[in-house]
Every structure is written in structure tokens, then in C-alpha cells.
């Protein structure tokens, strides 16, 4: 599997696991609790596959950053959460950090 496909699967599983964690209600609800375990195991499995091909800094920054933004989006859409200007600024900084690291850093250029 291509590394960016496995990275996308790792991110999707992580966001799903975090969403299930909210629904697990402190692990009081068995089905969402089981989903947390399965989703996080899947996320780390796909993250491990990705790390066979891409640098750890690039992978972790992308996984964490996109996971943060994705989880915030789920919170907004599924749990009626809201953002204030500081939260929007923080998310913008996370996105900017991932873009700079993955798109402009010479440390993660192909062949480096």
C-alpha cells in the first residue's frame, strides 16, 4: 500500500477512535469502548506501515495535525461544539505548521 494511503487510514482511524472515546462516556458504554480499542489499534497499525516509508517527523506531524483538525470538525458537526477566535487561530497555526514542515522543510525533501 502507498504510504500516504496508509497515513490517511491511520488518521481516519485515529479520528474515529477519538470520536468513539467521547461516546464511550468514560468507558461506561461497551460498544463505543470496544470501537476505541479497535480504532486506535488500526491507527497505530497503519501508522507503523507508513513509518516504513516516510520520515517519523513528517508522519507524526501530519497524523497529529490532521487528526486535530479532523477531531475538531467532528466536534463541530456531531457534538454541536463551537470555536472561538483563539481556537480558530490555534487551528490555523497547527495547519500552517504541518504545511511548512511537510511542504517547505528541506529535511523532508524526497531523497534527503
Description:
This protein has 112 residues and is an all-alpha fold. It has one domain. It has 4 helices and no strands. Helix 1 runs antiparallel to helix 2, helix 1 packs across helix 3 and helix 3 runs antiparallel to helix 4. The longest helix is centred in the middle third of the chain and has 23 residues.
Q: How do the SSEs run, as a string of H and E? A: HHHH
Low-confidence stretches: none
- The termini sit apart by 22 Å
From the alpha carbons, calculate the radius of gyration and give it in angstroms.
Answer: 15 Å
Shape: flat
Residues in helix, % = over 70%
Q: What portion of residues belong to β-strands?
A: under 5%
Please write out the topology:
Blueprint (H helix, E strand, L loop, with lengths): L2 H22 L5 H22 L4 H23 L6 H19 L9
Question: What attributes characterize this protein structure?
Answer:
mainly alpha; 77% helix; 112 residues; 4 helices
How would you summarize this macromolecular structure in one to three sentences?
The protein has 112 residues and is mainly alpha-helical. Helix content is 77%, strand content 0%.
